[in-house]
Amino acid sequence: MHNLPPCPQCGMEHTYTDTEFYFCPDCGNEWSTKEEAPKEETGLTARDAHGTPLVDGDSVTVIKDLKVRGSSMVIKQGTLIKGIRIIEGDHDIDCKVNGTSLQLKSEFMKKA
User: Fold this and answer.
1) Residues 59, 73: contact at Cβ < 8 Å?
2) Each residue of 76-106: pLDDT tens digit?
3) Cα–Cα dist 17/83, whole Å
4) Measured CA distances, 107 to 1, 34, 65 (Å)
5) Which of 53, 60, 73, 109 lies most in the core, judged by the most C-beta atoms within 10 Å?
6) Range(s) of the chain covered by CATH 2.30.30.40
7) Where is mean pLDDT largest: 20-24, 33-37, 93-97?
8) Is the pLDDT of residue 72 over 70?
């Protein structure tokens, strides 16, 4: 039995360590062995289509064509979106695409 701490993100106890980091194979979280896991400032969480946690400032890639309601704009599959913000609600990503501010669902994104 090992004495490693459980993952601060998902709470699972299947963690392992490298020289400077702990790793959680269940959720993919990494945190430093020298300090406690940093708490998210907003407390909001979002996960991409593959379950990877997203945080403010991440870059994401669109995984399918998305039609924008109320316009003829289509966000094409493979579009890279930089500097996202996590917000509350069903559409939990706030971002700019081609100069247009939009709110999108994280389930149609993957972390870049």
Assistant:
1) no
2) 999 999 999 999 989 999 999 988 999 999 9
3) 30
4) 37, 33, 13
5) 109
6) 46-111
7) 93-97
8) yes
